[in-house]
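FW: tagging you since you asked about this chain on Friday. Here's the raw sequence from the shared folder, copied in full. Didn't touch anything.
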Amino acid sequence: MTTPPALVDRPSSHLAPASPAEELSLAALLDFFAGEEPVSARRTLRSSAVRCAGWVRTSSRRAAAWGAVPTAAGVRAEKAGVA
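HL: got it, structure written out here
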């Protein structure tokens, strides 16, 4: 015997609008999300590039260890296990 499922009424999703006094101003939001020290875009780009280059180097060495390529760049044949 099958019974129909007991469905629960969904709660209303309408929120009461906030009063202007309760809302944060743009300056307050900027103070909340802004860091103490501004970071230059050049420095963040450089650190991202270094991290990406390290990932590529590690990935190519791992691929060489698995035999996907003869040897990884910068790895001697003796270390890579290639005769």
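FW: The first helix runs from residue 26 to 33.
HL: agreed, and The mean pLDDT is 77.
FW: great, closing this out.
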